[in-house]
Amino acid sequence: MSAVLRSFFTSRSAAAFKPVRGGIATATVYPFPPLRSGAPLGLSPSFERDVLDGLTLRQKAIASTWLYDHRGSELFEQITQLDEYYPTRNETQILRACAHEIAAAAGPRALVIELGSGSSRKTRLLLGALDTPQAYLPIDISAQFLQESVAELPSLYAGLRVMPVVGDFTRIESLPELRLLRAAGGDAGRHVVFFPGSTIGNFTPEQAVALLRRIRRFAGADALLIVGADSTRDPAVLIPAYDDREGVTAEFNKNLLARINRELDADFDLDAFDHQARFDPLQQRVEMHLVSRHAQRVQVRGRSFHFEAGESIHTENSYKYSLARFQQLAARAGWTHLQRWVDGQARFAVHVLEVAARGDGREQNVKVA
Ligand code: TRP
Hints:
By secondary structure, the protein is an alpha/beta fold. It contains twelve helices and 16 strands.
């Protein structure tokens, strides 16, 4: 699995994305680049560096990106179906209600770019509503999961070009695929960047502003940006959503340790750590930790790390944004609201943004019944 990931990541050259005919009508699938033996390591060195650096911090911490290997992506998919995990349900309700208005704003022949696409299930609501969408570029860090998730899309949307991009979207500076599409005669409509799932909340506000600026740069001045952000602040709702009865979230969190054992020759004892979700009302974020049950030492790539009893590795933040705070955040990055949609329980919001210069007070606020 890691070999596949490395190779896809490093061989993502323009030539690797030559279109081939899919089985159905005019649908086009852009294949994953073939494996190349002896390819230089791609993702793996940054995983190693992040883990080793993170374990030397006073508050040990590992970037949440690394939770999403193939197994992690599968477990996260299970989380989205849990009773306690309301964000997916509430966001889906919103998207069902507003997809057609978003589609009207996007216009015909849109090109959809999705950041951290996972299962691509919510995207179908958008693709289904758009007027002859031209291309879909899902970006995800798990190559195999991405491949499985997009496999049937071309047969569902005739004429849609599906161009999966394997990589860490936080490090993407530009998308050569956009140039490729244009060169291939793809007379693109509007670029629609789809960023659902409250993934924006997994960055600190500073990082989130930097990311939103970067999106503006690679997506262009005419882009539409659709961001899902959670605004729930009630710990009685939040804690079960991030620490469910069945223990799926605990398994998801601990899978990071299993992955480090597997890929970085480490010896974490998974039973010696507990999953914990905490709400920090000051920072308005849920924090995910792996807490050491007792004092212990762990070896990773030949280096030894000490844990006190109760000491934790911080593995994830999920910031919760009120509508006003999210608007400030987006404005700092040069985005302005075109529409804002909220679910019936007022827990989750879908923000439809455009580049600020275009903004001319056309904003609509809509609550989905
Ligand atoms: N984007 C999701 C969120 O913030 C990620 C997430 C959900 C998550 N549950 C998790 C991350 C549990 C780590 C552990 O809601």
